[in-house]
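Possible race condition, two jobs.
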Amino acid sequence: MPLADGALTGPVLVVGAGLLGTSIGLALRRHGLEVLLEDVNPQNLTIASGLGAGTAASDGARPQLVVVAVPPDHLPEAITQALECHEAVVTDVGSVKSAPLREVERRMGTGSLSRYVGSHPMAGSERSGPLAASAALFDGRPWAVTPHEGSDPGAVFLVDELVGLCGATPLRFTPDEHDQAVARTSHLPHLLAALVAARLTDAPSSHLALSGQGVRDVTRIAAGDPLLWLQIVTANSPALTALLGDVRDDVDRLLAAVRDGERGTIAAVLDRGVAGTAAIPGKHGGPAEPVGALFVAVPDHPGELARLLADAGQIGVNVEDLHIDHDPGRPVGLVELAVATDRVDFLKGALEARGWTTHR
């Protein structure tokens, strides 16, 4: 019999009080839901509870929903245990869906998986642990919901409710579709960032002195927890193997073109890169909108960045994004403001009238 399509009212049991689990607890507490927490690390549990993400679960807890937020290697065991120990709907927030599902099916045998629905919020940080958590971590972010063929519609509904209460937007995928998508948009970029960052480890300090915003942008995500990413990459091996093979072929062609000075091939690679960046959805999931860059010299003193953003707001120009690059030769930061293309010149003139030094 299908589960009742009732609202998520709690209690919600969160298994794993790390970055994602604690953030989910904090987000649900905003709506007054009762949140129970479990973690094998007592310190994580103490910190998450102290932050207000929930209270430690006691024996005999009867949650309406269990959210499994443990590292990838431990997902099958934790999901299976949640299904066997509780009558609740069970979801997880792991980065890979197909391999854990197959292992849970093996462990459960003839047991029903109708109460299990996988999910994965596309939000996180290069930082980890409960101290990095935030109630707003999922606000406006996509959250994949990945029911399998046997998932009860009522269970899917309840997971959608969880996503909405956390401030995210649910997107429906099959487990296999999800793994292909995240391999392309998350796992492959992380591995390539790691490869680029690795070229810096033995670089002379004189070379590193020329580091600009470009290298910081490309390598930022490479600072993520290596042990966590090792688990993610190995769990999504089939999808990543195919993509890495394609990248290897592209690198071989690019290497030959650079060596032989084949400008047409190099230009095609660069043009395809531009097309790829344009394909990334814009804010609120809509089409990407063209933006222009305005560079502003900002003194490296407290309050100066806030004054710049306040001036931009008073001028009436929405800042879509910003980057800060410090000038090593003087106490000034160069702030790149990304704004709508047709507003760049207007913002430039208005900021200069207020005393800011700018250039395009």
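Job #2 (started ~2 s after job #1):
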Amino acid sequence: MSRGLIALIIAAAACIAGQLAEFHWLVYVAKPAAIAICFGIAFAASPTPSARYRTLILIGLAWSALGDVLLMLPQDRFVLGLASFLVAHLFYIAAFWGERGRPVIAPMMLVPLVGMGTLVFAMIRSGLPSGLLIPIGAYLIVILAMALLATSRAAARRTAGARAAGMGAMCFVASDALLAINRFDRPLPIASLWILGTYFAAQYAIARSVRAD
């Protein structure tokens, strides 16, 4: 286990513990630290699929860090945080799109992802304020597109890095689905553990994908 991964596990555990215990100061420190560690993992990775891929992933991680900060603030910055993560996913999409200008799409992943997105949206629809209907719908489309490209790329390339990106994308979908259900449908038991656990796993796996092997 690398030192970066050990440091990430410590920061992630501190963030989750702080969230569960409502030690907000600990969350304010540990959550940005965890994403900074992911950024460092991606930045230090060698060799990489390409300089372009690394740059796009790093920019996506930076936008994710901004989203984390916005969502942590005492004021309700949910829409701004959502927008920051949407931009992050657009950069991840650009990274997973491929170097040849044409994405690889695995039809076998399209049906389960669309099915999952439809189910989650149906669950949260009645609890969504009218002003969030379009932002949440747009975000859902973008994150599912990101997951489709990442998993399709993993199926086509069959490398450890591509598989890491695919797993990270699916963990991101799971984390955001849990977050949406917890916020707009029904409270989940120890929700922070599942939401943050899958979130940190997602960002680590995507950062890890920068190392080509």
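The chain has one domain: 3-208.
Logs attached separately.
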